[in-house]
Structure formats: structure tokens, C-alpha cells
Protein 1
Amino acid sequence: MKIECELAGRRKRRDMSKFVHKLADVQSEMIGDGTRVWQFSVIMNGAKIGRNCNICAQTFIESDVIIGDNVTVKCGVQLWNGLRVGNNVFIGPNVTFCNDKYPKSGNRDFKCMGTHVEDGVSIGANATILPGVNLGAGCMIGAGAVVTKDVKPGVVVAGNPAKEIAK
């Protein structure tokens, strides 16, 4: 698919097929048009990534992860099994998601707890999202926040543990 865009006063054509950097390890074939995957990123077989996403350098996406359209995943983020990300979401640098409430080395029988990030959510740098949490549509998570429980749609939370600071 090709679209027209204005660049420096001249008409240019931009190819909207996906871009995968030659130093990325992309095993999944379910990546939408217009998505860009940058160097040193790993995307496991089975992961689903929507259209027009930006998967920045040094990210890891496990096989049971679903990402919507127009999502930005900044550098240093790992997305673990059970994570569902809606459309138009921003995940800041070094955000940490967890999917095991009681992690233990070598435990292969742990219960994977899914986390849901609804449409329009913005998550600041270095925030930690504990397993089983739902982030409501349009909410904002402050940088460095530790989210231990569900966040209502449209609110802003910050701190450790994260508390509502604005609507």
C-alpha cells in the first residue's frame, strides 16, 4: 500500500509495508503494514502486532502478546505472554510488565496472569505494571509508577504504589 505525503514542499511516495531492521530477530509473520521494528528487537513466533506500530530498539515480545494499531513501544521494554495492548498506546522506555504474581526460579507451572492495556493509554518511562492489572482507556501512568491494581479509564496515576492524582 502506498500513501502520499508532503515532504519539503515536494510530493513523495512512502511505502507503507512493514520495515524490519536487519539486526532484529522477528519470528512472527503477524505484523501489520506500516509497522517498524528496529535493531536488537526480538519478536517471538505467534506474537501479533498491528498496523503503523513503532517497536524501538532492544525490545522483546513473547509469543502470546497481542498489540493493536498505532502503538509505540520504546527501547528496553519486554512484553510477556498474556499481555493485550489496545490501539494508540504509548509504552515509554524501560516500562516493566509482569505476568507471574509469585515468581520463582525454575517454576514452569506458574499461572500466567494477563494484563490488559486499553485504547489510548500512555505509560511513562520506568513504570512497573504488576500482573493481572487492567489499564482503562485513555489513562496515563506517571514515570516510575508501580501499578498494583486496575486503573480507571481517563485518570492519571503516579507513585509507589500508584495512586490517582488527576482525572
Protein 2
Amino acid sequence: MNMNELPLMPAPPTEKKSLVAHCFGGFFWGVFAVAVLSWCVDAWLAAFFDEQQGFLAALIKPGEDDLVHRLITSVTFLVLGMTANGFVSRLKEAKLGLQESQAWLNIMSDASFEGLFISENGKILAVNEQGCRDLGYSHEELIGHSIFDLTDLEGRQVVKEHVAGRLENTYFVNAVRKDGEKIVVEVRARTVDIDGRNLRVSALLDVTQRHKAEQNLRLYERQLRSMTTRLALAEEKVRRDIAIALHDTVAQQLSIAKLKLGSVLKDTSDEGSFDSLHEINELIDDAIRETRTLVFDLSPPILYELGFVAAVEWLSDMLSERHGIECGVEVVGGELLLDHDLRVTMYQLVRELLVNVTKHSGAKSATVSISENSGMLCVDVKDNGCGFNMSVVGPGFGLFSIRERLKPLDGKLNIDSEPGLGSTVGICVPLAKRGEPNAP
């Protein structure tokens, strides 16, 4: 069966006829004519064998036996004609209705944006126009063709598994056109049992362009995440350069000025000058402290000198001192050896989480747990703050930024929070194949 063999346009609507119209159609009048002709032939034969009676007399005034015979014959023909005419009329109506249904089915199938295939045991029985256009074959080339030969080797195995298992889920395979070009198709299929035959009805949608667009989108996302990571590392490098410059220039010059001012104070006997110089000395002390604080805020040297854990411990002490939040650090396992990029990135992420605690949670205490388990570095930041409902509030931009920065590292962000019960935010990244530890 070929869908293309159906009429191209729907047949006109079937005319509904009355019982009289069924009984007195053209077929009936043909049978009626046969009955009249039979009457005339019977009269001619009667006149031919009866020399005393003419044809006209035998026709108009037949004998009693002849009349009965002719009446029975004529009525029989008339009844048969009425019955046959009704049957033929209904048969014509059924045929027109079937043609109309087939025509609409043909239009619907050929107007579909999906390629429709009907197969049995992998052999194609019917296909619509869109299926032919997608694969570049004609109807004649596809009918009888194996549906397994329309994909590449990997896709062929997938199709066979779905056919054998009578699966109905949506899946994607690479189909091969007649010209050898590969296209990505979305397949939805269903097995239908008809008169003991297992027919596979498959709908194929060409999603090559969509697949390429999705691939490009994923590529752009990876590139964007990579650029974000490089930007964060570059920012950290700039911060470290500024911190080093402040430490090596401003802080050193202030320290030298303090030493020289101390010498002047020792040699000064004038009380008025001594008070002024002492005030200047205190201002220099404040400037030195602020400079050192600024250096540590920009890029703590301890991160590069003593490592990630020591930097997190220093950060927790600073937050406790500045914001009044009791913050502790728990380390499970031995010393962690992290490469430069991972060390910097993880420190930035933990700092972001602790800043969120101080800004939004209203917590009185927080704990940072650091552990290494099965090649994974896991850091959990837990607080006893107000918490939030994830289904209602959702993660803010800070958590979204953390999740995006973890993706290039194959890391994961886990959030567990309930209103009034605080929050726990976990970060896990793999440690394998990270290069040399403690790289500068």
C-alpha cells in the first residue's frame, strides 16, 4: 500500500438518498425493461405456436396460465431489481465514503511536517511525502526498503532495540539520506497489532538544524564559562599585583617613615612639637594597619604561602572579628595539595559563600567543613541563620555565579535550606588530573 496512490483531492460529499430513490434508480429501470421484454417474448412465442392467435392478442389478452406465468416472472424481476438497486446504491455510497476518507488521510499525511513510515519486521510498507523529502528517496525506492538501512551503524542498533522491544519513547538517531548526507532525526514510534500483524508506525522529524543550534549553544556556554573562569583568575592576579605593590611600596614607605619619625621623637625636647609628631606617628600607624588590611582583602598572601586551608581559616577569623559571627573551620583528612587555579577558585567561592552568610542569613554562627573523599574536594558552609524556601525564593545571582564557575571544573553545588533552620551550601570538585600542586 502506498499513501501516494490515494486521491489527491477529497471526493464530493456523498448524497443521502431516500428509500424510494434507492429502489427506483437506474438499475431498477433496466430490470423493469428486461421484465417488459420478457413479457413481449413470451407473447410472441405464444402467438408463434398458436396459429389462431396473433401476437398482439397474445400480448394483450394472454391465456390464464400465460398471464400467471408472465406476472410471476415480471414481479420476480421487479423485486430482484429493487433489491439489487438498493444494494448497489449503498455500495456506491460506501465506496465514495471510503474514497473521501482515504483522500483526507492522504492530505493529512502528506501535509505533515514529520515523515511517517509504516513497516513490518523492518520492511517499509508505506511512507508519506515528507518522509521521502527528508531522506531524498522516491516512494518506489522506499517501499520494500529496510528501515534499518536508513541510519548509520550506531543508529541501526538503536532502531533494532526499539523495534524488538516495541518501545514507544522518543529517541534520536543519525539518518543517512540517499546522497550520503547524515541528518539527525527525532523518532517516535508505536507498534500496532492489526489482524495478527505487528505494524510499526514511526514518525521522523528532521532536527538537524536544531541539533546544530543546540551544539553551538553548548559550545558558546562552555566558552563563556571558560572565559568567566579566566576572567576571575585574571582578576585575582590583578588583585594580587595590587596587593604586592601596596605591600612593597606604600606599606614599606610608611614603615620607613615611622622609623624616621621615631628617631625624631627621641631627639625632640619641645613639648609642642613632640605632641604633633606623636599624633603624626599614630596616623602613620593607622595607615600601616589599613594598608595591611587592604593587602589581605585584595589577595591574602597566606593563600599562596600556606595554602587553601590556612587561607580559609584566616578568612573565617576576619569575618568573626568584623561581623561578630562565630565562624569555625573543620578539616577532615590530611593536608590538601591543590594546584594554583583550583586553590584560587575555591578560595573565591568560599569567600562568596561566607559573604552571603554575613549579608543575608542573619546567622550568629557558621562552620566551614573541608574534606577530601574519593578524589573529590568537598567544602560545606553551614549557618544557623533564617534559611529560605528554595521552591519559592530560588538561588540568587551569587549562587548562580558559583554554579556556573563550577561547571568548567566538573563541580557541583548542593543547597539545603529551610525557613528558620539555616542553610548548608556544599561545593564538590574532582581533584584528579589537576597538574602540579602548589603551583605559583
Protein 3
Amino acid sequence: MKNEKMKWSILPIVLIMMCLSGVAQKYNNGVSVEIVQKTDTTSIGQQFVLPNLQNMEVTMAKVTIQPGKSTGWHKHNFAVFAYVAKGHLTVNFENGKTLQFSENSSIAEVVNTYHNGTNNGNEDAVLYVYYFGEKGKPLSIRNEQTVGN
């Protein structure tokens, strides 16, 4: 029964994605659609599993990280995607792995894994972040203890 509920809860998302995939053909000349990222795994290879949320809520946020600053160690319990519009971002993971993301790159963020994003550049890092979460739940969970390097 749980799998059946999961299938039905995912159905609206699948239908929307199918509709959006055909959008490019419907625009007039002078309008283009460029796929920024298409993936079935996070940035460290985790398979995406959409949670069975009762009150799903999608949040889009503009996140600006000043030079030398970081997000702090945190994790997400659901799918999060980010686009680096400006600057560079270094992401450290609790397993010691580090990834670099430059301007105009996209990130399929990790799920249930503590990570810390740091701007080691000389200008603000600006990200547009999409959180596929649940109403009334936090977008991220902070880890106040020292994690990783």
C-alpha cells in the first residue's frame, strides 16, 4: 500500500515534468530553453527517492554567501537543487569529500548528509536554490557539532 501511495504522490510531479519537457517546442523564435542539469543522482552519487510528503511545498530562494563565509554544516531531508549564478562554491561533505562548483554550474544537493558550502572567492557567491520540502518543516537541519575537516 505504501508503494501505491508513493506512486500516486509522485504522479503530479511526473506529469508536470512531462509537460515542461515539451515546452521548448512551443516557444516562438528568439526563445530558447537550455537544460542546466538532468540527473537521477545527487552530486555524490546518491539515488534520488522522492519522499511521500503529505504537504509538499517547493521553495525557491536566492542565497548569497559573502567571500570567506560558509553556510555552516547542515543537511536536507529532501531533494534540493541549486544553480550558481555568480562566484564559486566549495562544498565539503561529512565523509571528507570536497567538490567545487563554479559560476553557471548546477548542484543536485545531497540528502541526509551533512555538508558545508564555503565561498573561497573574492566576490559574493549567488545561488538560486529549489527546495522540494514539506510545509511547516525546516529547509535544512544544522549540525552544531564539528563535522568533517
